[in-house]
Amino acid sequence: MPDPRFFEDLGPVSLADLAGLTGAELGDPSQGGRQVRAVSILAGAGADSVTFVSDRKFLDQAAETRAAACFVTPANAARLPATCVALKLASPQLGYALAAGRLHAPRALTGDQSIAPSAEIEADVKLASGVVVGAGAQIGRGTRIGANSVIGPGVAIGRDCMIESNVSVSFALVGDRVRLLSGCRIGEAGFGATVGPKGLVDIPQLGRVILQDGVTVGANSCIDRGAFEDTSIGENTKIDNLIQIGHNCRIGRNCVMAAMTGISGSVTLGDGVQLGGAVGLADHITIGDGARIAARGGVIGDVPAGETWGGYPARPMRQWLRQEAWVARQMTRKDRGTKEEG
Predict the structure, then answer these.
(1) Are 247 and 265 a contacting pair, CB within 8 Å?
(2) Residues known to be catalytic
(3) What is the reported pTM?
């Protein structure tokens, strides 16, 4: 179930209604009255939830799901257990997206007061002009929030934090001594879409952002909330200006990353990872503890712990430098040959 501090529960809804909403075929029409309260990924699905499976590599996991129902292609419906009702659809992910929008809604800023009456603000908190604090938000002692920053409903911010001007924080839990520089965006919707009958459909992003103690996020950087699980940034990690971190990423402790770096969704960084300027990381990869990526490196696969990689596609530093030197020698020889012919 998505965190109720950030998402409103719109359920329950019957499987028959979900089938009608999504265009799915109900595998067992006698189960149309069965109700569900939440969407879930396969790993966390319970008896009151609906999930989906669209990739064959997850079929074994689907065969053991405890979900009440599952969006699945007709060809794979037989792989579900008897306790799970099949919602047959050519695009299971589309079914999940539409069901998520029906069952959960992000909590929005409401009311005409800049500081919601239900917000909990400890002693010695300083709020500059134009600050907005949403319902149920919590702000710890000694925290400073700059002009025109927005703290969304349910957000929890620890003690002795420094949040500069024009910052927005939503769907997030923030530790102590965290610094958020001007213009950064924490907790916006991650980038996810699927194809529907009339074009692309946004997939609701139902996770959170967790910033542990001592994290620094630079000016105009963005950290997306998770699609369902959390995006998390480990203790004492330092993030430069103009950096994008996608949904579901798990960043370790004491990492550093320089400006213009882009991290795709579902990336895992171990502790002490160092990323140079303008590094790009493809999705669903793991960078081991203490690994380093040189500036402008483009990483499309896992990097072992402690290694230094560079180039595009990124490879171990010595290999990359040897290849670059070989290319330079070949170009020099070619230039020489051209001059001699002339």
Answers:
(1) yes
(2) 247
(3) 0.94
